[in-house]
Amino acid sequence: MIKTVEWTSGGVRMLDQRLLPTEEKYLVLRSCEEVADAIRKMVVRGAPAIGVSAAMGLALGASQSVGSSIADLAFDFKHMCKVMGATRPTAVNLFWAIERMRGVMAKARTEKLGVEQAKQKLVDEALAIFAEDIESNRALGRFGADLISDGATVLTHCNAGALATAGDYGTALGVIRGAIDAGKRVAVIADETRPFLQGSRLTAWELAQDNIPVTLITDNMAGHVMKQGKVDCVVVGADRIAANGDAANKIGTYMVAVLAKQHNIPFYVAAPISTIDLAVATGDDIPIEERDAREVTHVRDQQLAPDGINVHNFAFDVTPNELIAAIITDRGVARAPYTDSLKKLAAPRSAQAPAQ
Fold first, then answer.
1. What are the pLDDT digits (tens) for 21-62?
2. Is the pLDDT score of 354 beyond 80?
3. pTM for this one?
4. Nearest partner of 236 among 225, 223, 220, 252, judged by Cα
5. What is the DSSP string of 243-261?
6. Is the model's pLDDT at 188 over the cut of 70?
7. Taking a C-beta distance cutoff of 8 angstroms, is the pair 47, 273 a contact?
8. What domains lie within the chain, and their CATH numbers?
């Protein structure tokens, strides 16, 4: 099991994904601010992993609060949530996790718990979010496995594997692992995913770790391999899915979806229910993060572009729902019209019929 992030007695332990695949190094982050900085600097990335990390960072920060009353702890916690919420604007799992932790803090105040009791409740919630993420990805993989045929070659973009979650399975790669667990033969084509190279550095690395056949291509080869008949379906992750099924994912995903449509190849999005944002009507309302130009002009310390050149570095794009054949979640598979199917799947479990 790949351990992306975990809670330890010394702090939040993270695999530094910036160094993969050549160096496997773990950092121990000892404050809420250090965890927030690690999220911002992409030590950890992937919407589910960001949510888990944020929850652990808030629990860690709360455990270090020196306030003597529950009101003092709540005051400190409010500041921590603000710091954490300013790290990555597109990944909705970040804000989902913060809201869950805020709910625990609010309940602790309402119930007039002691400071130490409240701190323990926050740690328990962070650990619950971690455990739920692993189980939800396995459930997602089981649902998605039915969409992958035996002998299929799947193209994926960016990294939506164990490294993008709490560990173990992943979302898009969870579908592939689920199909393999079901006894199917599956191979993967991984886009390199410029400019941060999550496909070449991370997806290829973790698939190789699991001995899953993987072929790496540059981003601008996707259309060619589709035209050659080398791709049976596309499976990608998501950082936020709007109520109508528009899906924000790593920059370049929209381009792959258009190519898949042209070549009559099904394009699937795999994400847990926590990635669905019913408060956002369409993809037009999803905030798109822009990152440092250096990620485009350099690969690590190697300069690739002229000094002073103007650069766009959009971290995400939005794939319109009409290009998406299905959205695979941990509660079942949603199909168009997504406004109806996603709402049903995202409803509280007590209001749901069993997933088909």
1. 999 999 999 999 999 999 999 999 999 999 999 999 999 999
2. no
3. 0.93
4. 252
5. TTS-EEEETTHHHHHHHHH
6. yes
7. no
8. 5-137 (1.20.120.420), 143-351 (3.40.50.10470)
- The total of other beta-carbon atoms located within 10 Å of residue 309's CB is 9
pLDDT band at 89 (very low <50, low <70, confident <90, very high): very high
The larger pLDDT score, comparing residue 1 to residue 97, is at 97
Token code pair at residue 82: 């603000």
Q: Are 329 and 143 in contact (CB under 8 A)?
A: yes
Has 284 been annotated as catalytic? no
- Helix 92-110 / helix 47-63 crossing angle, nearest 10 deg: 30
CA-based nearest residue to 35, from 47, 24, 22, 51? 51
Q: What is the Cα–Cα distance from 160 to 270, expressed in whole angstroms?
A: 8
Position 352 scores a pLDDT of 52
- Helices 70-85 & 92-110 angle (0-180, nearest 10): 170
Q: How far apart are the C-alpha atoms of 159 and 198, rounded to whole Å? A: 6
8 Å CB contact between 288 and 353: no
User: CA-to-CA distance for 66 and 51, rounded, in angstroms?
Assistant: 25
User: Which residues is 14 bridged to in the sheet?
Assistant: 5, 27
Task: Identify the sign of the CA torsion 241, 137, 5, 96.
Answer: positive
β-strands 11-15, 214-217 pairing: unpaired
Q: Is 273 left (phi over 0), alpha (psi -120 to 50) or beta?
A: alpha
Contact 97, 51 (CB under 8 A): yes
Distant-in-sequence, close-in-space partners of 7: CB < 8 Å, separation ≥ 6: 13, 56, 59, 123, 126, 127, 130
Q: What pLDDT shows up at residue 167?
A: 87
Residue 351: pLDDT over 80: no
Dmax (CA) for the chain in angstroms is: 67
pLDDT of 350 reads 55
At position 111, the amino acid (one-letter code) is E
Q: Indicate which residue of 133, 191, 239, 317 is catalytic.
A: 239
Length of the chain measured in residues = 356
